[in-house]
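Practice problem: RNA polymerase sigma factor
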Amino acid sequence: MGRHTRAAAEPLDVQAAYAAHGPELYRFALRQLGDGGAAQDVVQEVFLRAWRASDSFDPQLASLRTWLFAIARNVVVDEARRFAVRPWQRQLTDDAGADTPPAAAADEGLVDAWVVEEALRRISPEHRTAIVQTHLRGRPYGEVAAELGVPVGTVRSRVFYGLKALRLALDEMGVEP
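Answer key — structure tokens:
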């Protein structure tokens, strides 16, 4: 950590980080914003902020990928707020606002959905399947157990330990429940 100097090591570190994580960050931003140009702007801003704050990165607290995605989450929220003040970039209907949440709430919902998706990727496939089927899809434990060919108690156990692993993944990502 202490051996970083801006002149020597950082340009190579940023290049390596961009090569390793840039395309994934772009896809994340594109999914959240639905605009290729805005997604490119987000990726550029992420790496600019990462470069400026590189001495605050601690690999013992989070992986580089997690740190970059935490930055990306903030940049996407900022960009989504900018879209909210540019009405010509939003598609409006005659009854806009009648049954749609405010733009900021919708943007936060998109970011929250990504955070959950990312945290689910970090847990085991068995735990992920149990949580997705029972909590996100609302299926009964017995039905999921029969489909997976395991006892109901196994599904309950996978959900219990999967939720613990999910909380840990969210903590590692720097997200408060």
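Discussion: The domain at 122-177 is CATH 1.10.10.10 (Arc Repressor Mutant, subunit A). Students who identified this feature from the tokens alone can consider the problem solved.
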